[in-house]
Each structure stands twice: as structure tokens, then as C-alpha cells.
Write a structure and sequence with these properties.
The protein is mainly alpha-helical and 41 residues long. It contains 1 helix and no strands. It is rod-shaped.
């Protein structure tokens, strides 16, 4: 039981990190597009 809880926690933590990394990637791509289009922000 203990081991299962631990692995579920690790998996959840990894999933959160992965989604954060994914959103940062999209955010950076949008910023690069804006820069190419001459946007300041």
C-alpha cells in the first residue's frame, strides 16, 4: 500500500512537471512568433 501511494505521488508529480514544461514550450513559441511579427510584448 505504501509503495503504491509513493509511486502514484511520483507519477502525479511527473505529470505536473510535464504539463508545466509543455505550457512553457507553447508560451515560448508564441513569443517567438510575436517577435517575428514585430510585436514588442
Amino acid at each position: 500500500m505504501r509503495l503504491h501511494e509513493s509511486s502514484a505521488y511520483e507519477l502525479n508529480k511527473y505529470t505536473k512537471l510535464e504539463s508545466i514544461r509543455q505550457s512553457w514550450q507553447e508560451h515560448r513559441e508564441k513569443n517567438e512568433e510575436r517577435r517575428e511579427n514585430g510585436g514588442i510584448l
